[in-house]
Amino acid sequence: MKKMIAALMAALILLSACGSAWAEQEARKLETAADADEWAAAFLGEHPEELEGAWAMTEELKTAIAGMGGLQGLAASLKQMGTPEKVEPAHEGEIQGYKAFYIPVAFSVMPFDIVLTVQDGTIAGISTGAYSGGGEEGTESDTFDSIALNLPVPGLGELPGILTVPKGEGPFPAVVLIHGSGSSDRDETVGSLKPFRDLAEGLAEKGIAVYRFDKRSYVFGTAMMANRQLTLYDESIEDAVNAVQLLAKQDRIDPARIFVLGHSLGGNAVPAIARELEKADVKACGFVMMAASPRPLDVLMREQYDYLYSLMPEVTAEQQAEKDAIFAELDRLRDMDALTEDDTVLNVPASYWKWLSAYDILQAAEEIKEPVLLLQGEEDYQVTMEDFGIWQETLGGKENRTLISYPGLVHCFVPGLKTEGSAVYAREGRVDSRVIADIAAFVEKTVK
Questions:
Q1: Taking the domains of the chain in order of start, what are their residue ranges?
Q2: 103 burial via Cβ count (<10 Å: 0-12, 13-18, 19+)
Q3: Phi then psi for 335, rounded to 5 degrees?
Q4: pLDDT the model gives residue 63
Q5: Other CB atoms within 10 Å distance of the CB of residue 357
Q6: Consecutive sets of 10 residues in the chain, 448 residues long: mean pLDDT of each?
Q7: Cβ(193)–Cβ(429) under 8 Å?
Q8: Predicted local distance difference test score (pLDDT) of residue 29
Q9: Which end of the chain is more exposed for a tag (fewer CB within 10 A), N or C?
Q10: pTM of the entire structure?
C-alpha cells in the first residue's frame, strides 16, 4: 500500500521512542539545526557508533536502539535505500509539542527525511518522514486557487489542509482525499512523488474542487502512538467524515456534490467511511477507491516483502534476519485473541490489527448506495491485479460500480514497471492524465 514502503523496507522502520521521563545525561545537547546537521553527518558516515554517548538520548531510546544493534545497526539498515547522494540542511519544526529537526536525505533509491525528536536537547525519537527537500512544491495557476483550510480534530487540535478550488464563484463539486497507510502529508508524498497534489491540481483544472490535509498520524503521531485503543477509525475514517461536513460549509462548494476518494489503505477505508457518512448530516454522493485491496493487510505485507526481496541480486544474512524478524511479528496475528491491549505488532497497537481483522470490506463495499469508481494500476506490486480480480468478481457488472485498470501504471498511478520495485518512487513523476480524466468523468456523470 502507499506508504507501505515505510513498513516494507526495514530501513524505514527506524523508531520513535518519545517518553515522558527524560533521562539526565552527561552528553552533548542537540539544540539547533546546526547540531542536527552535525549529528546526521556522523550517522551517515563510516562510524555512526561514535554518536553513542556523545549526544544526550532518553533511556527509552537507548534501549530501543540497542535492540537494533545500536546506531551502527540502525544506519546499516538504511543501505537498502542506497547511498546518501545529497543531504540538505536540517530545519526545525514541531511534533505534538516536541521540538523536531527534519533532515532531508536524497538516497539513491528513495529520498526521505530523517526526523530527530528532542526535548530540552535530549534526543527522544529517531524516525522517518516525507521528503521535504528539493525546493518549494507550490504551483501558481490561472485556473484554480489554493486556500488554507484546516480540519478540526476532536481532542487534539487541527490538521493543516488546502482546498484547491477552480476560479469563479461556483458552487463546484468537490473531492475529499484520504491517505494510504503510514504517516503522510497532505500531498501523500512518497519519495519524489506527490500524488495527492497531482490529483488536486489536475481535477481543479477540470472544474472540480479538491480538499487534502495532513494525516492525523503525521501531525499527532506521538499522541496516537500512546493510544492502545487505536483503530483505522481514529486514524482516517473520522477525519474523512468531518472533512465532508467541513467542505459542505464552504461558499464555493456544492454540499450536494461531495465525493470521497481513498488511495491504498485509504481506499480500503472507503466502505467504512460510507457507513459512517450514513449517520452524518452531509453525505457523499459518490466514492473513488484507488489501489484498494480486499485482502488482509498482513497478507499483502508478506507478498510485498517477498517480492522486494526477490528483486535483490543477493540477500545478505543481515537482510534475511530482518525479513525473518518481520515475518515472525506478522505470525503473531494468527492468534488475535492472544494479543493483549498493551501488545503491538510491528509497532502498531493490537487494537488496530483487530479492527482490520473484523472489517468485512467486501460486504461493506456491496452495501454502498452511492456510485463507486474503483481504479487499479496493472504494474502495482503493492496492491496487485489479483486484488483487482477479486473486486471484479464482487462488484463487476453491478449497477453504479465502475472498475478500470491501467497498463503501465504503478501504485501511485504514475508510469513505471512492477520490476522497478521501490525505485520508481525515487524519480519525478505525476499521476497519469488518464486517471484524472476518468475521475473527472465519473464526477461529471454522477452529479448530472
A1: 5-129, 144-297+351-447
A2: buried
A3: -130, 80
A4: 83
A5: 12
A6: 37 40 63 91 89 88 81 80 83 77 80 86 84 56 89 89 93 96 88 93 96 89 80 94 96 96 97 97 97 95 94 90 92 94 89 95 96 97 96 92 97 95 88 97 87
A7: yes
A8: 92
A9: C
A10: 0.76
Beta-bridged to residue 176, according to DSSP, are 211, 260
Write out the H or E segment, with its range, that includes residue 438.
helix 433-447
Three-state SS string across 47-105, please?
Answer: CHHHHECCECECHHHHHHHHCCCHHHHHHHHHHHHCCEEEECCCEEEEECCEEEEEEEE
Residue 219, classed as helix, strand or coil, is helix
Looking at residue 16, its pLDDT comes to 44
Q: Supply the residues annotated as catalytic.
A: 264, 380, 411
The architecture CATH gives domain 144-297+351-447: 3-Layer(aba) Sandwich (3.40)
Quick one: CATH architecture of 5-129? Roll (3.10)
Closest of 373, 198, 177 to residue 265, by C-alpha: 177
What single-letter amino acid sits at 249?
K
The C-alpha cell that represents 329 in the structure block: 511479528
Residue 137 is predicted with a pLDDT of 44
Handedness of CA 401, 408, 304, 66 (dihedral sign): negative
